[in-house]
Write a structure and sequence with these properties.
Elements (H helix, E strand, L loop, with lengths): L1 H15 L29 H25 L8 H16 L2 H29 L12 H15 L1 H10 L4 H4 L2 H21 L6 E3 L8 H16 L6 E6 L6 E4 L4 E5 H10 L5
Helix pairs in contact: 1-4, 2-3, 2-4, 2-9, 2-10, 3-4, 3-5, 4-5, 5-6, 5-8
């Protein structure tokens, strides 16, 4: 009962947090071309921004699995946790302050909402949560995103940590946690960036996707190719999967972002119009 009450409190707090404004163009920290962007800017609704931000955070997570595979990186601990850590490091590293905060806010809101949905489903069915799964519980993923991001710039992000209910005991360790994450993943990201621009991430979708999420992922692939090169090619696609999921297939060396995941985000973590 107390667990459900805590989750409900998170949701109430998160709804009060300022998500991106409507008609906000995708904006990257690193520029491609003289105009500082990737082609034509696209006017996005609040919902478009929210879903795209969460999907980008998940894409960075899947990229973590790809890097562990193609770079043959050692993983001390759960690989899923390591991929979550990379997601936060990438958001902090690639996006400006306003954009990165919006992405972490959307991602954290989604994990809290997903946790609430799972708790409600367990209460209805009487089945215990799947603690045997390879992923950490969504509640923990919520705190991972908030803690690590806050730890990257505590003075500037103190309001965010307070808005999202980060406990003081955990907040005290977040700067050290971020430094460890940045030092660990940053070493390998530096190596990829030192290799220069390339075409190692291969977009497998349409050249001009009409879907907002597909366009966001395609543009991120182009941006990453402009600043780094992986040791081997990794394909990236947005596709129908018959389930709300996203995954990296090591046999095919392909990241698949499922369209159903975007639908699930809207189902469990909608935003007010």
């Amino acid at each position: 009962m107390m667990r459900g009450m805590c989750i409900a409190r998170w949701i109430a707090v998160l709804f009060l947090f300022a998500l991106p404004a409507a008609s906000e163009p995708l904006g990257y920290k690193g520029a491609v071309g003289d105009d500082g962007g990737l082609g034509e800017e696209v006017a996005l609704t609040d919902t478009d921004v929210h879903v795209s931000d969460v999907m980008l955070a998940i894409f960075y997570h899947e990229l973590g699995h790809a890097l562990i595979d193609v770079m043959q990186l050692p993983v001390l601990g759960l690989e899923e946790d390591a991929a979550d850590v990379l997601s936060v490091v990438m958001i902090d590293r690639l996006w400006d302050a306003e954009s990165s905060e919006a992405k972490v806010a959307s991602a954290a809101y989604f994990w809290a909402a997903s946790a609430a949905a799972s708790a409600a489903a367990s209460a209805e069915t009487g089945e215990a949560p799947a603690f045997w799964g390879v992923h950490s519980p969504d509640e923990r993923r919520f705190f991972t995103y908030i803690c690590l991001y806050y730890g990257g710039a505590p003075d500037e992000r103190a309001v965010l940590a307070e808005e999202f209910g980060l406990p003081a005991d955990r907040a005290a360790t977040c700067p050290d946690e971020f430094d460890l994450a940045q030092g660990s993943w940053g070493l390998f990201l530096d190596e990829l960036e030192a290799a220069g621009a390339g075409e190692s991430l291969v977009w497998l979708g349409d050249a001009e996707p009409e879907d907002v999420v597909a366009r966001a992922i395609m543009e991120e692939v182009a941006y990453l190719n402009s600043i780094l090169t992986l040791p081997e090619e990794v394909g990236v696609q947005v596709a129908a999967c018959d389930e709300a999921n996203a995954f990296y297939d090591p046999a095919e060396q392909t990241i698949t972002m499922c369209r159903e995941m975007a639908d699930y985000i809207l189902e469990v973590a909608p935003i007010e119009p």
